[in-house]
Amino acid sequence: MNHFYKKNKLTPIINVSGFMTKIGASICKNDNIKAAKEILPFFVNIDELQLLASKRISKQLGCESAVITASSSSALTESVAATITGKDLQKIYKLPNTQDLKNKVLIQQGHLTNYGAEVGQAIRLSGAKILKCGSKLSCHNEDVINKIKKNINSIACAMYVVSHHCSDYNSLNIKTFIKTCKRFKIPLIVDAASEEYMEDFFIAGADMAIFSSHKFMGSLTAGIVAGKKKYIRNVYLQNLGIGRGMKVGKEGIYSSISAVENWYKRNTKNDLFKQKKIISYWLKYLDTKNYQGIGYEVIPDPTGNKINRLRIIVESKSSNFSAQSLAYYLEKNNPSIYVRDDLIHLNHFELDTCNLKINQEKIVMIEMDKIIKKLINKKIKNNINHSMYKKLSMKSWLKWPD
Asked: What contacts 125, CB < 8 A, 6 or more positions away?
């Protein structure tokens, strides 16, 4: 591992954040790399290959059809576009101009999250308009029904986002949301890019659902839109319009087939054993340190994936440093340690076990201990607040490629 980083003058990374695009999202699994290598030397008819993917993937997911896209984000845009245009080629050619078309997407306000870019922007790229329901903190079925009744003639579809990014939002639950959409005959798209149990969304009644074949499943970078054939066909037709710039290569399609099939053959007991062993080690290590102002607890995944994480809670008044300072210097460390910081405004972050290599869990604790000591002794900036933390993150974008 170190040879690769030295050779290319890249910063070594230990990933305890989960499956985050910023650091490459996932490590491709050997069987899926093998699948990509197998197809790369050959020309293939992409329509035939996508049909093969549709048959084999939909069989695993328990739905009618599926199509592979360049990413989950492009899947989001193309699935929305499909509900606006249907199979009308003239409408497909016209996008993102949606004048005189049903073009509104019903979505709970708290589901307009940022996954590295805004969900709302991915929707608007199709030419759609956003129709928010609920408040900043919560959404109820009455909010959804009232919004539908006032806009029924202009709604193209509804979207439900299943993500840790909106885990602190009091959402209307997915089953009720689906039931309400069906009552008013509104097609429903579920954005579940980082969810393990893909078949569950079709059992619940989703018309289309979006998944990443790269994150949990370890394919080459690609997204999946799956669901009812009449909608998936219209997603595929977007390749004749705005979807052309979002196309996926043959290697991404074939690797995705391998990824989905292997995902349903995996040994979940081994994964859970590894997770439990690492978290147990972390808990014992922290127990011996007895840091002042630092708490920790095991937290289940908020969206129902079979993942437990270790939450690190920083009480700044007792510890004399902020959670943001600790997270920032972990990232700036060598090796760079990326934590799961989506709720860091609540003064805590989490450590995820999914992508750790052998003995990296020990390095995480050793390096965190060094940084905590520096923060306590004020050898590094110990009072980074949330506003500063966000600005420091954005600074790296703005200075690139300098």
From this structure: 77, 96, 242
pLDDT of 1 reads 56
**Within 10 Å of residue 229's Cβ, how many Cβ atoms?**
13
- Radius of gyration for the chain, computed over Cα atoms and rounded to the nearest angstrom: 22
Among 231, 263, 295, which residue terminates a domain? 263
Residues 6+ apart with CB under 8 A from 374: 329, 380
Report helix, strand or coil for 357: coil
Same domain, yes or no, for 253 and 321?
Answer: no
142: domain CATH number is 3.40.640.10
108 inside domain: yes
Domain residues for the domain of 144 are 29-263
Helix (H, G, I), strand (E, B) or coil at 16: strand
Is the whole-model pTM more than 0.85? yes
Helix (H, G, I), strand (E, B) or coil at 170: strand
CA distance 288 to 208: 49
Summarize pLDDT for 267-320 with one digit per residue, the tens: 889 989 999 999 999 999 999 999 999 999 999 988 888 899 999 999 999 999
* DSSP character string of 192-228: -TT-S-THHHHHHT-SEEEEESSTTT--SS-EEEEE-
Q: What is the mean pLDDT of residues 12-36?
A: 92
Residue 170 Cα distances to 132, 140, 167, 201, 291, angstroms: 15, 9, 8, 20, 33
pLDDT 10s digits, 383-401: 999 999 989 888 888 888 8
Average pLDDT, the chain: 94
Of 52, 166, 47, nearest to 108 by C-alpha is 166
The DSSP call for residue 103 is -
347 DSSP 8-state letter: T
